[in-house]
Design brief:
The protein is α/β, with parallel strands linked by helices. It has ten helices and seven strands. A five-stranded parallel sheet has the order 4-5-6-3-7. The chain has a two-stranded antiparallel sheet with strand order 1-2. α5 links the parallel β5 and β6. α7 crosses α8 and α9 packs across α10. The longest helix has 18 residues. 32% of the residues are buried. The mean pLDDT is 89.
Length: 232
């Protein structure tokens, strides 16, 4: 594989300080909503992004956090913070793992008041969840109706084509041009998540540097066969 063959036809949105978030069919609708802020969020103070672990929710949440000048609050931090403190910040916010908050009447009450306050104040919050709003087991019906009426988008696991292109670019950025058959082998063997891809690249670079080897199909076959390149 020559350098000019590197698949650089990847649309991305800048994450400022983190690697860019690459766009494909598995996440383009979610990216669309993030890019519509703030004008496109006029009807609701909240956008809900949902998807399984490793799908890229937190990364895209970071893109929006920087764009919106927002704070980041984990589910645990939210639960431990009083409603008065949450409302007094008067800043946009990313709330991670709201699926861990829904079902708890105390936390739902805080989310309900936060929603109403943010709508009135013209602020926005991004809610990250592993489950869709339709499948979350809300206790407070008014909160359920607000969240289920809000814009939401699923981030699916990355598809093979996107993993192939991003894997090629990550290696290229580290000075390794890896042949397509080797990349394809890695994609078919690895877990389909960004966490697994990051782990694979880091381990491959570490071994290749220590052993002074190129990253080839036999090299990746040995790495993945040993289980050290996989992220279970």
């Amino acid at each position: 594989m020559q350098a000019h063959q590197l698949p650089l036809d990847l649309r991305s949105v800048p994450a400022q300080g983190r690697e860019d978030f690459f766009v494909s069919g598995c996440n383009e609708f979610a990216v669309h909503w993030v890019e519509k802020w703030p004008e496109g969020w006029a009807s609701s103070p909240v956008l809900i992004l949902y998807g399984q672990r490793g799908s890229g929710k937190t990364h895209l949440g970071e893109v929006w956090r920087i764009r919106a000048g927002a704070d980041f609050v984990s589910a645990g931090e939210f639960a431990a913070t009083s409603l008065d403190t949450l409302l007094s910040r008067d800043r946009n916010v990313v709330i991670d793992r709201i699926d861990q908050l829904v079902g708890d009447p105390v936390q739902e009450e805080k989310l309900f008041h936060l929603y109403n306050h943010y709508k009135q104040a013209g602020l926005s919050f991004l809610a990250l969840s592993r489950l869709s709003p339709e499948t979350l087991g809300f206790v407070i019906k008014d909160l359920a109706s607000r969240f289920r009426a809000a814009p939401n988008a699923e981030i699916a696991a990355p598809d093979d084509d996107l993993l192939f292109k991003v894997l090629a670019k990550r290696f290229y950025d580290q000075g390794y041009v890896v042949a397509p058959p080797a990349l394809q082998f890695a994609v078919t063997r690895m877990e389909r998540s960004w966490e697994a891809l990051d782990h694979l690249v880091e381990e491959a670079i570490r071994r290749a540097t220590a052993q002074k080897k190129h990253i080839t199909l036999p090299f990746l076959r040995d790495l993945l066969g040993s289980g050290e390149g996989e992220n279970e």
